[in-house]
């Protein structure tokens, strides 16, 4: 039986994890879940929000399904999510964004993929207070990490029959840092003549995405722009409740939704488990359990197409009722 690390997170994390584990179990696939807690509750007992045992578990199993973990704003400990990606060298954050059956949004035919560099940029967390009224954050961009993520984006395009990779920067202003990312993109793109390459400034991209997202295919971005743009693209397909993601490295992969811990709806049985479920479906495909992945995806799509939805999608089902509908549809 395959052993997979399950980081059940906090906020709505445990609720959506329960839902997804139940659905996978009902599909007939047996998984040996190695449950690992992380985040603020763990600090009280273990003195850190990201104990070594969590990292060791992911390294050993090579794969994890992760629910969101809260990060205190403006103070407190560093993000567990950022630390995890850095410590495990999960350099590529893959966030596909495609319309779902039964979820009506402003645009049809949205089908794009955000490939976000996951280890550096302003997320390196190098900040200093110069004096009471001045603070610096350092934006790190290296050729090595930029070429690696651009190569990942082009390889993804080749493997998934995509036709174009578009590099997103603000290299007109940050000529050295974003300039290096763009230069790396140009170097790598020359190795993939079969894939079209394109360049765009991040502000123009945002405007064009809300005008007509069908103009885009694969986007490759430095960390911060990737984080922001992928929330925007989540909005194009129904919101954070349906936006899936994966963090991929050389030796392990952690599958997690785009959204955070949603403290505003925690414990209310209201959260949409779709984003975590779709992340889990991709995880099952990654470990070559395609039969179960397709079975679960089909049941989810059928449920949504029949009009059964959670509150964030203007439906009226609770998390547990929606979960039960998907399980029913697994069996038909
Ligand atoms: P958020 O993504 O948690 O919530 C934004 C809005 O979307 C809220 O109104 C929330 O109710 C709604 N929402 C999110 N997921 C939903 C779901 N599955 N079903 C229905 N509605 C959903 O973003 P926010 O509020 O900015 O961040 C909350 C915390 O989460 C922060 O501490 C942040 O640092 C953390 N966070 C963690 C991430 C991770 O673990 N990978 C990613 C993003 C944020």
Shape: globular
Mean pLDDT: 96
Tell me roughly what share of residues is in helical segments. 40-55%
Instruction: Spell out the CATH superfamily of the largest domain.
Output: Isopropylmalate Dehydrogenase
Distance between the termini: 26 Å
Q: Which parts are unreliable, with pLDDT below 50 for 5 consecutive residues or more? A: none
Question: At the third CATH level, what is the topology name of the largest domain?
Answer: Isopropylmalate Dehydrogenase
Characteristics:
single chain, 11 helices, 2 domains, 10-stranded mixed sheet, Isopropylmalate Dehydrogenase, 12 strands, binds 1,4-dihydronicotinamide adenine dinucleotide, 332 residues, alpha/beta, two-stranded antiparallel sheet
Write the layout of secondary structure elements.
Layout: E1 2-7, H1 13-26, E2 31-36, H2 40-46, H3 52-61, E3 63-66, H4 80-87, E4 92-98, E5 111-117, E6 127-131, E7 134-137, H5 143-159, E8 164-169, H6 177-189, E9 196-201, H7 202-211, E10 218-221, H8 223-236, E11 246-248, E12 253-255, H9 274-286, H10 290-305, H11 319-330
Parallel strand pairs: 1-2, 1-3, 3-12, 5-10, 8-9, 8-10
Antiparallel strand pairs: 4-5, 4-11, 6-7, 11-12
This protein binds 1,4-dihydronicotinamide adenine dinucleotide (NAI).
Summarize the structure.
40% of the residues lie in helices and 18% in strands.
What does this structure look like?
The protein is α/β, with parallel strands linked by helices. The chain folds into 2 domains: 188 residues, Isopropylmalate Dehydrogenase (3-Layer(aba) Sandwich); 131 residues, Isopropylmalate Dehydrogenase (3-Layer(aba) Sandwich), CATH 3.40.718. The protein has 11 helices and 12 strands. It has a 10-stranded mixed sheet with strand order 2-1-3-12-11-4-5-10-8-9, with helices on both faces. It has a two-stranded antiparallel sheet with strand order 6-7. Helix 5 packs across helix 6, helix 7 runs parallel beside helix 8 and helix 10 packs across helix 11. It is globular, with a radius of gyration of 20 Å. It starts with a strand and ends with a helix. The structure holds 1,4-dihydronicotinamide adenine dinucleotide. The site of 1,4-dihydronicotinamide adenine dinucleotide (NAI) has 20 residues, from loops.
